[in-house]
Amino acid sequence: MYEIKDLTKTYRRGSQSVEALRGVTATIADGDLLAIQGPTGHGKSTLLQLLGGLDRPTSGSLRLGGGDLTRMSERGLTRIRAAEIGFVFQTFNLIPTLTARENVEAALVPLGVSADQRRRRAAEALADVGLAPRARHVPGELSGGEQQRVALARALVKQPRVILADEPTGNLDEDTRDEIMDLIERLWRERSLTVVIVTHDSAIAKRVPRVAWIYHGELSMRKESAPRSGAGADAGTGAEAGAPA
Amino acid sequence: MFFTYLFRELRRRSRQAIVVMVGLALAIGLVITVTAASSGVRNAQSSVLHSLYGVGTDLTITQNAADGSNAPRMFKLNGTGGAGKSATTNTDNVLPAPGQGTIASSALSRIAHLAGVQSVSASLSALDIKFSGTVTESQGSGGVSGLTPGVGPGITAPTAGANVGVQPTSLLGVDPTRSGMGPLSTVTITSGRNLTAADANKTSAVLDSGYASQQGLKVGSTFTVAGTTFTVVGIATTPSGSGGANIYLPLAKLQVLASDANDVTTIYVKAASAADISQVQNEIQKAVPGATVTSSASLAGSVTGSLASAASLADNLGKWLAIAVLVAAFAVAVLFTMSAVGRRVREFGTLKALGWASPRVVRQVAGEAIVVGLAGGALGIGLGYAGSAMVAHFAPTLTATTGDVPQGGGGQPESLSGPVSGAQGPPTGGSGGVPGLTQSITVHLTAPVEIRTLVLAVLLAALGGLLAAAFGGWRAASLRPAAALRRIA
Known about the structure:
The complex is a heterodimer of chains A (245) and B (489).
Chain A lengths: L1 E12 L2 E13 L4 E5 L6 H8 L7 E6 L2 E2 L5 H10 L1 E5 L10 H7 L8 H14 L15 H13 L5 E5 L7 H18 L2 E5 L3 H6 L2 E6 L2 E6 L22
Parallel strand pairs in A: 3-8, 3-9, 6-7, 7-8
Antiparallel strand pairs in A: 1-2, 1-4, 4-5, 9-10
Chain B lengths: L1 H11 L1 H40 L5 E6 L21 E11 L3 E2 L1 E2 L1 H7 L4 E20 L25 E13 L13 E5 L11 E5 H7 L6 E4 L2 E10 L9 E4 H7 L5 E2 L1 E6 L5 H11 L3 E5 H6 L4 H38 L1 H9 L4 H37 L2 E6 L36 E6 L6 H27 L3 H8 L1
Parallel strand pairs in B: 6-11, 8-10
Antiparallel strand pairs in B: 1-3, 1-13, 1-14, 2-5, 4-12, 5-6, 5-13, 7-10, 8-11, 9-10, 15-16
C-alpha cells in the first residue's frame, strides 16, 4: 500500500523554481488499478517517479508497505526498484541490442538470479504475454505492441507488488492499445498487482476502477469504484484535496 | 548477461569501437616500435661499448705516454762480417705499445683497496716486431738498409741494401684470473678455450681467428715470441672494431718479455654498484695522479656518428611522437566513451529503473571501454612487432665513432710499410686500432621487442581503457534515473 502525505516536489534552476507537485495526499491500496490523468507538465510523471523511488520529493512522506521512500538510502531505493516495482514506459525502453528474452532477463540481474533461472523465468514471462515465439528477436524486429508486451514481461518477471506504467499505450494504435490494456487488466487480476497508469487516454480511464486527476501539481479523485483485484478488494481509500480541472 | 550485453553493445557501436581501437593500436604500436628501436640503439651502443670496453668493466685507467717516449727504437742485427758482405738475420723484439704509457702494478693494489671497488684487472699492450731477411752491411753499422726512417712504431732504417721481412704482431697480456672483465670478456672463443687462472704462469696463448688463419696456427700449435715458445690453447674472434690484439698472453709472461715486469697499460675496475662509479672514479683519480680514468658513461658520451644520431632521434623525436599519439588516442577513447554514454542516457536510466545499481551500470560501461582498450592493445602489439620488423629490415647500417678510446688491445698499426725489397706487409688478421685515435664501428640496428615492452603495451592499453572507463563510468554513475526518464517522458 502506498501512503502519500503532503508530498511536494519543486524543481529549481537558478533563481527560478517550478512546483511540480503541491501537497499531494493519497492512499493507493494493494490491488488498486489507478489511472492518473492530467495535462502535460502538470506533475503526472513526477508523481510516478516518486512512487517508483526514482526521485526524491522536496517534502512530505511517501510510504510503500511500511517503508518510507523519502528517507531511504539510494541502495534501499535501488533494492525496492529491483524487487518490488515494475516499470512500463511509453517508448518501451527495451535495450536495442538484447533479444526479447534477454531484455526480460535484465530485470532479474540485480536480484542475483542464476543464469538458468533467469532464462527459464524470462521464457515463462514472455509466454504469459503471448510472445514466446518472439523470444529470440531483438526489439527492432518487433512491432510496437510486441515491444510493449516484452516491456510488460520485463516488469512482471520479478513478480513485483507494483506496476507503474507511464503512458503505456501512448505509442500504440487503438487495437493494440486495447490488447495491451486487456493484458494489463488480466495480469492485474491474476497476480493481485497494484497498478498505477499515467495516461492521456480517456478510453483507458474508462476501463479502470479508479481515476485521479492531477492539475498544477494537485491531485484529486475523479472516479471511484470497487477494485477488481482480489488482494485489493477490501482496501483503498480515496485521494484527498486537489483542484479539479 | 554482462558479456552478452557488452559484446552486443560493442557490435552496435562497431564503427566507434573500431576508431577507438585503431587509435589505441596505432599509439601502442608506435610506443612499441619506438621503444624497440630505442632498445636496438641501446643494444648497438652497448655492443660498441662492449667491444671497446669489455663486459663487467665500469672504469678503465690508462696513462698517456710520456713526451718523447716514442723515440725511434734501435734494433741490433747480427753483423755480416765486413763491409759489402751479406748475412741472414732474424730478430724478434717485444716493444711497449706505441702511444700508451705504463702504470706501475702497485697501482692495482691501491685501487683494489679503494671503497666502492669490487674487482680490478689489468692488461699490458705490446708489439712484437720480427725482422727476418738478408742484410748487406754498408758503411757504418747497426742499421738495416732499405727501411725508411720513421716508418712504423720506432723503427730506424738507415740505408739501402737489404732484403728484410718485417712482421709486427700486437700482443695483449691479460690477467687470466679475471677473465670475466677486461679484454678477455670481449672475445668469443671459436675453438679451444679461453685463458684460465691455471694459465697465469704458463706459456699459453689465445689467438685472434684472423691472425691464426693467416699464420696457419690452430689449437695445439706452437709459436715463438722473443724466444719464448707459446702453445695455442684457443682461437677467438673479437667484436668488429674492438681494440683486440693478435695474440693474448698471460700478463705475467708478457711483462717478462716486454721487460715491464711490474707495469701494465690499462687497469679495469668494476665498481661495487653503479651508483658508486662516479665516486670511485674520483678516488682513482686521486690514487693514480695523472692517469686517465674513463667510465663507460663518458665513453658513451664520446660516441658520435649515425648511431648517436639514431639514439638522439629515438630518445627525442620518437619518444615525444609516441607520447603525443598516445595522449591523442586516450583523448579519443575518453571522448568517444563519454559520447556513447551520453547517447545511452535513456538506456541507463531504464536499467536503473529496473533496479540496476550504479556500480553495475558503471561496470558495464567500463567493461566495454576496457575490452576496446585491450583489443587496441592486442592490435597495437601486432603493429608494434610489424613496425619493429620494418625498422630492423629497413634501418640503414649505423656507424659509431669514438675518440680517445682506452685500448686494451695492443694497438696494431693500421699499416706498416716501407720500400724494403721483399718486405712483408702488415698482418691483416688482427682487428686492432691505433690507441688514441678515433675508431669507427659499424653496427646494424635491430629493434628487439622485449617482454617489458609488451608489458608496457598491455599496461598502456589497460590504462587507455581504464581512462575511458573512468570518465564514461563517472558520467553513467552520475545519471539520476529520474532525469534520464524525464527525457523519455
